[in-house]
Structures are given as structure tokens and as C-alpha cells.
Queue: 2 jobs
Job 1
Amino acid sequence: MRASGDLAARGLRVRYGAREILKGLDLPPLRPGEFVALVGPNGAGKSTLLRALAQLIPYQGEVRLGAADLRKMKPAERARLIGFMPQSLSAAEGLSVLDSVVAAMRAGGETIPVAEAARSAFAVLERLKIGHLALSALDQLSGGQRQMAGLAQALARDPEALLLDEPTSALDLAKQIQLLEEARRLAGEGRILVAALHDLTMAAQWADRILILREGELWGHGAPAEALTPAMLAEVYGVSGRVERCARGRLLVLADGRL
Amino acid sequence: MTAAPTSAADQALAAWSRRNRRRALWTAALGLLALAALTLDFFLGTAMSLGESWNALWGIGGASSRQSFIMHDLRAPPALMAGLVGAALALAGAEMQTLLDNPLAEPFTLGVSGAAALGAGLALALGLRLPFIPQEWAVSANAFVMACAALAALQALTRWRAGGPQTLILFGVGLAFAFSAMVSLTQYLASPEDLQQLVFWTLGSVQGATWAQAGLMALVLALCVPFSLRAAWRLTALRLGAERAEGFGVDVGRLRRGALARVSLLAAAAVSMAGIVGFVGLAAPHVARRIVGEDHRFLLPASMFCGAALMSFASAAIKLMASWNGVGLLPIGLMTTLIGLPVFFALILRRRAA
């Protein structure tokens, strides 16, 4: 699946009651094939931004994917363009992983026969290396397995853009790497991939570009080496830290202490 | 001859299909159980033996016209009504539990029963009736209109203050308390004879049902079921969380409004025809869920069959008890709870133990 154009947003405003979470945020165009990491302290608006991009919450402003104004689309059409994986996944008792991915495919009003939906659903599970969990009940999976099942659900409709909200939060190191590798591959096929991440070293290792959010505004963005600087750590996170290169040339973000 | 080696995908998909077939078979078995219960309820009665009932049904073996009348006009409509009301309450309960993401939800959680009771109370105790409605329909019509009004108020409130399921539940519980207070007021004002009628009505009964009422109940069910089944995949997706479902392309707001409208219609019709029959709407979907799981393609029909079976067995039990000790027919609302509770507990406890 190759995205038909850039994902871009202008003047995004979201408020919860009196509190303004996003303050007229302009998102630089996110290009097909690009893996973008969204970073920033807690409460900076990362999840809110992803939800607004996925059209799951009301917002002011404009979100476009290529030529399409996402807000004007019907939910079922939109779901073919954008897949969203929330941070927490509730697990309905007695639904298997395969059931949930088939439901993800069919719920938007798709008319593909169930057997065909099940076949492509299983292909998604195999791709994520959780084919062996197909018939396991969702409520009996470990946190990490559930996260992978959630990714499978988001991928079910083969969307052009994939938005992942802290996809690695429940995963051990090996699983984090597996998920990020997969995310890289999905981007490599021409999708737009945005993931909110907390681990800056991981973000530096896997992402093409890093978007930094602070207090509902875009503080800056750029390739990892440009975006991750001691000045950024101080200003955005309130932390004194260093960004160093290891012997292999990879960036390491080291936090020394609070400012 | 050995089968050709199959891929992991084929094996998993075959296992998945087998599991779905098993769920479909269980659903069909529950349907047969409901049918058997309905038949049992139909043939049981205080006035005639089983053999006489059979003869009277077909007009053979020297059955009198009185016996034939009993079978066709006195027994058939209540038996049918019991099954239909059970199915309607259970379907409403199943959709409600998914809709509100709350295992305790049932059609009456949101004050429907209270509103219907108030409508009945106004007709029975205070003589306040809708114009142009024949006498025999007055109580049902009042109950139906009040139940629909309660749910319309609820829909309006949730639209006005967009909120999630929690808001809806809180509004509903608030309404339920308000109606309950008003029902108490009508009871306080009612004469002793009216009060007795009102109390009997609130305990639930299908014994007075006519063909016209049973037909109307069947019509309501026939109107709602296709829409419910059409929404099955969307409802299954909703079990994964409203945000997930929205992400899959489900218009969750629309799904909620549609399901709430169906639930309103089903619950209002059931309550207005049979009075307040508790527990079926809560327990039947849980029993069905234990048997066929959360896939709403199976859960919705299985719930209906469980509800119908529970009501029919309760109705049959009432008749058996009446023929044994001559206490008269107990209200069915009591019996559904007494019969359903052990089954309900057993299934829950077995699950916990597993």
C-alpha cells in the first residue's frame, strides 16, 4: 500500500473543557515511506494529535491526506486511509485475535465474504508473527501480545497512513525491536507511519524524522541528529542531558538530571 | 489416503471455521430449546390433560368446541407472547450491554420499566388514558408511550450533552428513581382494588394476552431483528472499545442511536404487553455469551433464544405449580428470576473456576 500523498495538518486546535490541548498546531507534511516519531513530555498533546489526525475527536483546523480532506469523509472511507492504534486495548471476553481482526475488516461496512476476510486477517497476523495466536482469546494474551493484536487490527484494512500511540509501552526489549522493525517495513512499503514514543534513543534509531511537541505546539522537527540536542532536552523536558554517538555511530540520549 | 500437508494458514482458518460452525450449532440448539419450551408451555394447562390438549388443538378425538377455544384462543396467544417477550427483552439486553459497555445493563437499567409502570399506574389508578384507545389496550398504550417518552428524553439528553455510556447510565438511573417515586405516588393515591391490579401488573404477566397483542409484539420483533443482525459486526467491533471501533470505520454515534432506538422499541413493547419481567434482559445475554462468545452474529440470536426459553419455561412452571397446589397462576416476573438465577450463577461460577 502506497500513500496517495502527504499527511498534513494546519491550525489544529483541540480543547477539553477550558483546557486547550493543541494550540493551533501546524504539522509539516509527512511523506509516504516516512517513519515519524512523535516525542514530547507527558501532557504535550501527542495522543491528542494522533486522535485528531485519525478523526476520533472534534478539532478545529484541517487535516489532509493527499487531496482528501479527512474530516469530510465518511468513517468507513476514512478507515481505508488511516489506521489508528490506541495506547490501551480493551479485550472483550471470548473474542479471539482472529475474530477481532476480521471484525476490524468487516465493521466498516466492507462486503467482502467472511472467509476471504479471515484469510487476509490471518495473513496480517502471520506478517506480525502472531499467527500462532490466531485462535487465542484476547483477554488471555500478555500485554505485549495484545499490543501486537492491536497493531494487527489497525493494519486490517491496509491503510495508507498508520498512527500508533505509544506502541512499545507494554513491550519488552525484543518485542519493542520487533514492533519497530515491522513499523519500519510498513513505512518502507510507502505508508506514512507516525508513532508516539517516549524512548528518545529508540526514536533516534528507528525514525526518519522526529516531531517534538511541547504544551500543545510543535516545538521543532527534523532528522534525529538535528532534532535531538541538549538544548531540546533542557527546553522541552526540563532535563540536563547529552546526545552522544556510540562506537557504531548511533545516537544515544543520556539524561543526567532534572534542571 | 492421507490428506495433503496444509499450511499453517489453512490449519488455523479451518480451526476458526470449525469454531464458528460450533457456535452456529449451539445457537441453533438454543433455538430448538426455545421452541421446545414454547411447545411445553403451550400444552401445559390447568383445565386439560396433555392428551386432551393435543386432541383439542387439532379438533380430533371428540374435542369440544370449548376445549378447542381454550387451545387456540386462551393458551396459544399467552404462550407465544411469553416467548416473544423473552426474546425481545434478551435482544434488548444484549445490545444494551454492548452499547453501554456494562455487564449490568439491561433494558430496565435506563428507567424504561419505571416509566412503563408509571404509564400503567396512571391508567389503572388515576384513570388517565390516551384518547381514541380502546379500553383493553389502555394500560399497554399508556405504558408504551411512557416508556418511549423516557427513552426519547434520554436520547435527547445525551445528544444535547454529548457524553459516553457513563453519562447515559447516570441519566437513566436518575430517571428510574424519578419514575419509581411517581409510581409510589400513584399507588398511594390509588383505591385498594386499583392498587391490587397495579401491583399485579408490575409483577409481570402474559396470561391475558390476545392474538392481536401477540401479533403486535411479533411485528415489533420482526422490525428490529434484521437491523440488529445487520449491526452484528459493528457491535462486535464496539466490544473492542468505542475508539477502536471508530478507527475501524464504524460511525459509533450512529450505531449507538440506532441500537438505542431498537432497544427502546423492544423494551417498551415488551413492558407494555407483559408488565415488568425482570432478569431476562440481564441474564439471557450472559448465558448466551458463556455459550457462544462475543461474536454478535451468534450472540444476538443466541440471546433471543435463551430469553425466549427462560420465559417459556417460567410460564410452564407457573402452570405446573398452579395445577399441583391450586395457588393460582403466580406472576411470571417472579418465576423468571427464580428459574433463571440458578442457571445464571452456575454459569458464572463455572467460568470463574475455569
Job 2
Amino acid sequence: MFKDITIGQYYPADSLIHKLDPRVKFVGTLIYIISLFVFHTWGYVLGTVFLFSVIRLSKVPLGFMLRGLKAIWILLIFTMVLNLFLTQGTVVWQFGILHITREGIGTAAKMGIRLVYLIIGCSIMTLTTTPNKLTDAMESLFRPLRKVHVPVHEIAMMMSIALRFIPILMEETDKIKKAQMARGADFESGNVIQRVKAMVPILVPLFVSAFRRANDLALAMEARCYHGGDGRTQMRPLVYQSRDLAAYAVLLAYLAAAIVLRAVLHW
Amino acid sequence: MSIIKADNLNYDYLEYGEDGEKPEITHAVRDVNLKIKEGQFIAILGHNGSGKSTLAKHMNALLVPTGGTMWVDQMDTHEDDEVWDIRQRAGMVFQNPDNQIVSSVVEEDVGFGPENLGVPTDEIWKRVDDSLRKTGMIAYRHHSPNKLSGGQKQRVAIAGVMAMKPKCIIMDEPTAMLDPNGRHEVIQAVRDLNKSEGVTVILITHYMEEVIYADNVFVMDEGRLVMQGTPREIFSHVDELHELRLDVPHVTQLAHALRLKGLDIPEGILSIDEFVDAIMKIRDGGAVSDERKQALGENPEERENKADRENPSLT
């Protein structure tokens, strides 16, 4: 039941994209998402070319990239159907109150492409970067926010601890579930409401144990002199290499091209 | 010079009942005086609720005494400014191996302590290599802690403490959740560190087999320090230990039972080898009084057979 949840599905490979600084990948993903919303018509060709070249460079099989789409296909169809039927314009087909317009087809297609590319774009980042590196990247990129009292280091620490404890809590859930089943609990039959109710005897002990673990861990961290991000050094400090700077240049060129296509050429 | 010294240490806390009744004062530690010399291997014994874990938390300044003073490497744990220094000198390993590992990669977890101390990056890597090697975990450096056995996780935790270059390691029942193999692994690792690095080890446990290696043993009961001495001295008092709801090692128990039956075996036998020696001595014509002969059986052969049965390795 809990096997399907994968967070940070890292795909180990030796590629240029894997070696890039996680900050570059984070910023790159952001730029790519922006470009998707800048594109109007022919710009999508540029977006497609860029996306597929990066996939090619990353050496991750395309199948892995598309796996991420499984999670959103309901949302995808929902968005496309709504856009298809609710956009006003030149009617091409009508049945009762339902009608499809030329503009509707255009918007639906555009929204579909945007969503699919957005998910694939984010997948490239999570597939080629370990969760720990991503956390480091976020901590480093958002560091300026500390000036406005955002606890950046603490949030990053919380994320990496969460990643460490997900498998442990999963295992524990499994154990509790089996223990309850051994005492006659039934998780398989009944309607949705009954099944949700049956989860309560799993969740209560799980929460109790999670709190106990949190308490233990806090104590262990304090015993090892953890006192927040101040005065802390890093084992793997992030340092930009020349390839990272080159990647930034490519990204900027890409963004500039996207803006020129839209604003100057009106494509 | 003593690395840890407790002066009339007391620790009380309020225990709140379930239905908001008046809180009761619990005396977890009462009037404890102890001195631990640098480089020693110390064991603290006691059954559940005897205050041994509370005492251990004082040695790391996780708890501050409500009465008396705790000195760690000449620093008073009352001083807020010295808390981080104290925790660097006196590292702590806890019972649950999962709940004390912070990172999802072994080597990063070992680096967590030095990172907190603000050690420069190069030096962190040196320390990580060094402590992983000393605990025999270097082969697992890139692994996820989730894939390790309990004993290996505890060794990672020990490596994490060692990377902070402590003078002393306090271990709060580190083997309680492990299987016999893991227990042996962990105890062996600490004994090695104690011998080769000269790190003071304070082992809190209720497994008697782990105590026999200690230089000095403290026994706690109801928050008080009730016995203190070498393992041999402590295990000479089998009956008192039973009264404190503590077991003794099986060999010690056997030797004690035989002694009660009148056999001339010294008190405080700790290992099978010692036991064998003692039995051999008796067989080779140790003085056995008539009275004891009666207690054991009429003739010498029968006595020997009895000894053989007790310890098959003799033959």
C-alpha cells in the first residue's frame, strides 16, 4: 500500500546533468517553468527541443521521465476538458449546452503541453539530483531570506531529517498494520468510509511513535552540539565549477530566446 | 585527574498525574558522589528506574542537577557558556540506533558533529575517515543507515561521537535493542577505542556480561549509588545484587551456588577460565574438609564427576 510513494526518485548515472551544481538545476527548472508560460505558439518548438536535449544529456531513460506523469493524469484530463468546453469563441461543434470552440482547442492543447512539460522538467531535476543535494541547494539559494527572519537553515534541516525518517516510518506503519491484523483488524473490506476508519488504529500508534522518535532525535542532536545554522561548517560546501557557469549562460540564452520569440516576433 | 566528578548530585523533577492531580516530586538521583579517572572503562549498573540514565544525561549537560554539582573535565555543567564545550568533550550514544542518526548517508552522519563544532571542511573529512576506520565501518561509508544492522548503526553512532574528538564517551544502554551478535560487536568496538585511543568509556547497561571488562563498576538503586568497586568486588556480593534485582553472569552464579554448597571456590569468579582453574585446584588436592565432603558426596570420584558435569571443557 505504501510502496507507491516515492520521494526523490533519484536515478544514478554518470552524466553532465548529474554533475551540475544542484543550484544550477534548481534555477534551471525555474527558468524552464517561466519559459513555458512565456511561449505562445511556435515557442513550444524551442521548449521541446530544449527539453529533449537535456533529457538526452542526462542519460535517464525517457520511461522514467514519463513515470512522473502518472500522478497527474486525472488533473491533466480535468484541465484539458474544462478548457475545451468553457472557452468562448468561434463554435466548431455543439451538442445541447456543450460546445467546443476553436480557441478552446488551442487553450486545451497549450495547457496540456504546459503541464506535461512542467512535470517532465521537474522530474529531470529530481531524477538527477539526490534529495540531500537538493536540500543543500535550497538552503544556499534562499539564504538571503534570512535577512527577513525566514529560518532557512532550519527548514532545510527539517527536510533532510524528514527524508531520513520516511523509510523508517513506512516500515513502522507496516509493522503496526501487521500487529493489528494479527489481532483481527480488517483493512481490506467495507466501503471507503469504513476503510478510512480502519486506518485510525494504525495512525494513532504511528503518531505516538513519531513524537517519541522526534524527542529522541532532538536529544541526540543536542548531545552532538547542534545549535542551529550559526557557526556551522559544511562537509560538502557548494562551489560553482566552470561547467556550472556555462550552464547558467545556456539557460540565460534560452530565456532570452523565449522572450524575444514572444515579445518581438509575436509567435 | 578525574574527568567526571559528581559532588552530592541530586536531581528532582515533578511528575504530573493523568487527571491533573497534584504533581509529585520524584527524586531521580540522590546524593551521588563519584569520580571517574581519565582513560578508564566504567560500567554503571542498575535495574529500570534506578536513575542511571538520568545520571548519564548529567554527564553530557543534557540535564543540570537540581542540587550539588557535576564537573566534566573541570567544567561545571551549571555554566551555560560551557555547555557546548562539555558536550564536545563528553559524547553520548543512546539506546535506539535509529533515533540518533541524522543523515541518510553514513559518512554525512559522522560529519554532523564536526559540522556543528565549526570544524573546517578538510579537517571534517579527515576526522570522518579516521573515526569510520576506528569503528570498522569504513566499508559502509556511502550506505544508507536504513540498510545497516542494529550493531552497525550503533557503531556509526559511536563513530559520529568519535569524530568530535571527545575525551569521554557515555553510552546509555547502547546494546539494549540489539541481538547478541550486535551486542558483542558494539562492546568490542568500545573496548578497542578505550584501549587504543585512551578514551574514557562510561557504559550504562543491565547486561552483566558487558560489565566484567570494566575497570570500575557503580551500582545504582532508587537514585542512590549503592555499590562501587572492581567487577570482582561487585560480583562477590551475589546476594546483595539479587536484592537489587540484578543478575550476575552465569559462571559467577554457578560458582556462588557451589560455594554455598561448601566447595572451596573464591567469590567473584568472572570468566569460565577462572572457574575452571578454581575447580582444577580443588581436584588437585585442594583442602576439602570432611564437612564439605559430606555436602558434596562421599568419595572423591563422585566429586570429580560433579565438577566434570558442571564444566564439560574440563575433560
